[in-house]
Structure formats: structure tokens, C-alpha cells
């Protein structure tokens, strides 16, 4: 129960194809996060699964049943909206009970299911309150409660935390993960926040312009991005991209020269020709001060001190923007250049079309 | 911190307030006070008013014409208020589902009657209702329903609904526009959530749409009930309160008493009762039609 399959699903609004032919398998109990920039089609895809948008072509299969023409309520899905979509004139109890009243369940059954959901979500003391009397986090919990009582096979979340402040968002992220662990249902979650995706998902689907760029576990996406878009989208702060020129292949990989003049051999698989314009990607956390096989100098422009670490924004000597995460005690000051380096096995290499060279011996953990 | 200009002494701010205040006192507050004072007198408009105490009011509640005008007004509330409200809600629910471009055309078309002066509409509808050459009867006869061709404004039983229906036609577009803005105010994901929860359209309408439209329902109730109590021009141009007082309403009665019978004191008491009625209805609507979801308990 809770298996979902998208087979050649597309969606067009007029002449604009917002979802290109899409295939995706979601197995029971997975916490799948659709992530991508605004307008990439992630919410549309979710709404298609919910039955709020019609498909232009393809099939949506839930637990072996094609549900293209099945009403939302009969698909076995429940949805939590970005704006909570609570009924403002009803109490918390009535909001949670609404789908059960629609289904005409006996009063006792409604009472017990609502109380159970309220207990899970710590809303027992708020059942008589109206949504306007609740905090953002409590409202979101009511919306989740309304989904829980229906006992759906699949939960759908459409950017449910984006209206909350940063502290509450972190708290709710943990609560949602805890809820997933305790209920064990399939959950599909849409967000544009890659931190939410990385921290909550068992599987991430990265979308761009209505097309799936990559599907994988958070660590797969982090360590083995298939292209420059995914590499740049996943990870915070975002990956540094440095222009490089291919010097040729060696037995150890592809040798290249950075704009700063540093020569480095990248341990990657795949063919590259001398003179190819490549891009080297290195995460800010993988840059180290005065260490590593490849070195270059950086001029800091902004130093963000976070205590245990400092985030340095600046540029290398070739003028390319660089971001580095270093230890909080490092005496880095604005405008005073210092030497950075990295180990090639930590870096990524991208072809001119943006696709990534496969890295050798990359452990995911 | 620099204080606001409004914090200046009264004498400094008075020049700004005075022009508006003078106009308000001269044309609104003054006439209201004058009408209240007048309602306690007997005055023919020429001589000195004679103090009558509560005589006018006591006489008013034994006056069969006044009571009939109140009864007629109660019936007209159905046409001024209830029917436009129901039709307005239904049309708003339908029009809101239509595509934007078509919605604009429909909205404009249905709102059109409201932008015309009601006195002009009264004259037009008097012609439409004309028993001999009015288009309504002509069409009825043309389609073989001649038996239904009635003297709409001449029949004691039909005239009040006939006039009332014009008011309904006049106000439903206005109500619809108010409800449409109300529907646009409601977060669309609420309706989507109800759909996912399995609620059918009628259930959603009754349990979600209507309660959430209560602020608009309250405004519509207030405005249309006030309009019905104030009704004059439409009825005056169509029937002048006739035939045989079948469409007599307090304002027509007040006009007749004051400007035809020169009983200004008595006419003023009719006006004051009308104003009290409006205040009472306002209070009742405010008291009993409460918007939901504000957190108030």
C-alpha cells in the first residue's frame, strides 16, 4: 500500500508544456521530496498526483490502479497545503473531523480518530480553538491532522513549511520526519528549499523546467550529481564552479588547468579532449586553508562568522567568485588574501554541456 | 519625536475641520434635528408650528395607511433583499467558475441595471408592464400565453410583486459583484482541500462558502434592507403608491403627507420612524449575522 508510479506523465497549459514526459517510481513508505527552483513544475506534479490537475498524457498508478480519472478523495491521498487551507470558521476539532464528516462516519469513530490525531500532533488542548487563535506551527499541525485522520496511503505536502519562520521550520522538519517514522506511510513533499530536501527525504527528485534532472538519495545527489544544475542546487552554501581547460587524459584521470594557473588531475571516468572548456566544482566545505593538491589564492570580501565555522565570500585571483567554509577560529579578514586548496577526489568535473564526469571511488557516507 | 499635526491645539486645527463641519451641520445634522423637532409638532408649512408632544407618533400607530405602508415594505424586503441575495450568491458561485475573459463580460452585463438611475428604470418598466402595448404582454400573447397577460401595475395583488421584481432585477447584479469579491478573498486552496476531503459542491457551498461569505452577506443585508426601507423613486415613478395604496410605502406616504397634504409634522414623524427602523435593522444584522473565523468566541 502506498506505491506510486508515474508513467509518461505530461502536463500542458495551452502551448506551454510545464511537465515534460516523466517517469517515476515511488515505493511504499518512502519520503520523497520534489525539489527545484520556482516554476520547475514540482507543485503541478504534486497536484496531478492529488487529482487537482488533469493529466495531458500518461498514467498515474497508485497501488496498481490507474487513477487518472479517479476523484481525489478516491485516490487514497491526503494533501497538506502551503497556506494550511484550514476552514477559518471551524474549530480545530471540526477542521480535523471535516473529511470524516464528509465520509459520514459514525460520531464515535470521528471523535476517536480526531482525538488520536490530536494526541500524535500535540493538539489536545487546542481542539476548541479557531485557526486564527493558533500559531503558524499549530495551524500546520492541524492541517497535518486533517490528513492523518483520513488514513491515506500517500501523504502529499505542498511546501508546508514555507510560511513559517526559520526556527519553527527547523522544529517542524524534525516533527514531520518523526511523523513519517511513526506512521510509515508514503510521503511526497514539495519544496524549493534544498535543506528541507536533504534533511527529510529518503529519495529526492530534482526538477528543472518540468523535467526530472536526477532521482536519488540525498547523499547520492550530494556526492554524485549528474550535472552542474543538480550540483549547484544541492548543498548549502552552493558549490563553487571554476573554469578549467583540459590538458588531456592520464591514467589517473583528466588533467586540467584552472584560470588561476593551477594544474590538477581529477580522478574521474570518461573521455575528455585537450582544449575542452570544462568546469571544476568544489563544495565550500571541501576547500581547506593551505592544504590539498591543488592550491589557489582567494581575496575575502565578506566574512560571515557563525561561531564554529566562518563562511568566506570572495574571489580567486582570476576574479571567479569563491565561497569557502573554514574553521570559526581561522583569522581570516576582509581584503587580506590567503591560500586555499582542495583534494581532487573531493571535487567534481563537468563537461561543456553541464553533465558530470563520473567520479572514481566516491563513498556516499 | 515630532508630534502629529493632529496634536496641535483645537484652534489651530479648526480651520481645517470647519468647512466640512459647517456643510455637514447645514445639510445633514441640522435637517435631522429639525425633522426630530418637527415630528413633535403640527405644522402646515406656513404658520407657526404647534407643539403636539407624542401626538403624531400615537396617531401614527393607529393610522391604517401607515400600517399598510409598513406591511407593504415588509413584503418588499423579500424583493429588495432576500431574492437579490439568493440570486446574487448563486450567480457569483456560477460566474466565479467561468473563465476570466467571459467572467468580465458576464459581470458587466449582470451589473448593468445597477448603474442606471432607478427613477429612469421605473419609467422604463412602467412601459414594459403596460397592459395594452407593453412588450411583456405582447410577448405573452405572441407565444400563445395571452391568459397570462395581466394588468401588472393595475392589479391589487400583482402590483407589489411586479414592482418588487424590478427592485430584485436592479439589485441582484450588485449583490453578485459583492459576493464575487468575497469569493476572490477566500483562499482557493480551502476549496481544493475540501475537494480532496471528498466534499461535493453543494456540501462545500453550504459548509464552507456560505459561512465564509458572511461578511459580504452582512453588507448586502444592510444595504438592501436600508434600500427597501428608503424605497421611493422606483415606486413613485411606477405606481405613485397605487392602485388604492397597494404599493404604498412609508416614504411615499411621507411625501404625500408633507408635500400634498401639508402635514409636515406628521410626515416628519413617519420619516423618524423610518430612520429608527433602519437603525433597528442595522443593529439586528450586526448582532445576528456575525462573520466567522475572526477568532472571536
From TrEMBL, chain A:
Family: Belongs to the ABC transporter superfamily.
Lineage, broadest ranks: Bacteria, Pseudomonadati, Pseudomonadota, Alphaproteobacteria, Hyphomicrobiales
Gene that encodes it: ugpC
Superkingdom as given in the UniProt entry: Bacteria
Alphabetized UniProt keyword annotations: ATP-binding, Cell inner membrane, Cell membrane, Membrane, Nucleotide-binding, Transport
Example GO molecular function: ATP binding
Any Pfam family hit: OB_MalK
Organism annotation: Jiella mangrovi
Protein name: Sn-glycerol-3-phosphate ABC transporter ATP-binding protein UgpC
Domain ABC transporter: 4-234
Automatic annotation (TrEMBL), chain B:
Chain segments annotated as transmembrane: 21-41, 74-96, 108-128, 158-183, 204-229, 264-285
Cell compartment(s), UniProt: Cell membrane
InterPro entries the UniProt entry points to: MetI-like, MetI-like_sf, UgpAE/MalFG_permease
Protein name: Sugar ABC transporter permease
Pfam families: BPD_transp_1
Protein family membership: Belongs to the binding-protein-dependent transport system permease family.
Topology relative to the membrane: Multi-pass membrane protein
Chief place of localization: membrane
Coiled-coil features, chain-numbered ranges: none
Positions of the ABC transmembrane type-1 domain: 70-285
